[in-house]
Amino acid sequence: MDISRKDVRAIYRAVLDGTMSRDAADRWACSIVKEQEAGTLVFVPRQDEERIRAGFMYLYGVDLKHSSDGDFLDSEDAIRDAMRRTVGDEEV
């Protein structure tokens, strides 16, 4: 399976615009981690591997909530910042 920064960025954007739930984004990231563990994940381009991995690993847990109040651990601003830091917010 091929994965690019564009692919991961699309998931961030879907979460931020409300077209994908945080739970669905977490499940997507979990499936990507499983592909990586199976050795079937191909980073495109290869030199973006670190940024792509950081991007989907952030999403793997984006649905976590505080136990005390049930609010999400990460705000939308935090998610947006993580996207910018990892996969960028612009097409490359």
Description:
This protein is mainly alpha-helical and 92 residues long. The chain is 57% helix and 4% strand. The protein has 4 helices and 2 strands, in the order βααβαα. It has a two-stranded parallel sheet. The longest helix has 17 residues, at 22-38. The two termini are 21 Å apart. The relative contact order is 0.23. The model has no long low-confidence stretch (mean pLDDT 96).
In short:
The chain has helices at 5-17, 22-38, 49-59, 76-86, and strands spanning 2-3, 42-43. It has 92 residues and is mainly α. It is globular.
Mean pLDDT value: 96
Total DSSP E strands: 2
- End-to-end span in angstroms? 21 Å
Helix content: 55-70%
